[in-house]
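Final report, closing paragraph on structural work. Over the funding period we assembled a curated collection of sequence-structure pairs, and we close with a single example.
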Amino acid sequence: MIKAFLLFKKINQYLSLVKFAHTVFALPFALIGFFLGVKNLERPFDFLLFIYVLLCMVFARNAAMGFNRYTDRKFDEKNPRTLNREIPKKIINPQNALIFVIVNALLFILTTYFINDICFYLSPVALIVILGYSFTKRFTFICHLFLGLGLSLAPIGAYLAITGVFAWTPLFFSIIVLFWVSGFDIIYSLQDKEIDASMHLKSVPVFLGIRNAIIFSIILHIICLIFIVYAGFIYPFGLIYWIGSAIFIGLLFYQHLLVKPNDLSKVNMAFATLNGIGSVVFSLFVLSDLFSQSIFEFLSF
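Its predicted structure, as stored:
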């Protein structure tokens, strides 16, 4: 019983290390990519392949977040906001964190081997992108776009898993993720502007200042909006998609009403709560639209 408790405690520590709850940002879009592939190929649902895709998402994100915590450990020790993270508090030592990263990266590559050749061959490229983000704050203020790029691999990666070929529609959803994530990451980084500047780290708030950073975030979210609309016409989706899009866009811009240059007290609500809800709701409406179209086609036949 004691051993089981200690094991559960250790697992919980590593889940906290990688902020496992934040998987809610990219995973719903991976599901969109997966089921777009199911519908486009008109093939039966493959439960085992679905599990492989979920495992890839978990392993890739664990590797990326664990590596970020490992590489940023010295910075986290100097930032009051991040001082209580697992490595600075010595709950998890850096060596074990790095082992955790390596194990998850290898499991990610191994899982892609069982999916198809293109996913397997591209898996090292995906790891370079998602792990490479951790170094970008050291040399460029557009590091937020690199984070967005990493998460944007979810829809197109899931689509490739089931189809083995590239297509425009899932790519549009990847672009949506790119600009959505980049925009809200800028909002999140507002609270670290001063400490980042003192440690010579780069970010949009450090480069442009808080007010202009918020404007830049809005511009990125407007681009995101454009691609949401474009994807809706290109596919084409039905009414359910547009309802979900309206809700997602509404939540997207509501966060900009919460965060003001002279009041950053609601940054965490804007970052985690609204974007987490928006991602889940949007994906539910998109998937509902896809399934409703399939049902309608079946009944018509």
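Residues 296-301 have pLDDT under 50 and may be disordered. The chain has one domain: 12-294. We thank the funder for supporting this effort.
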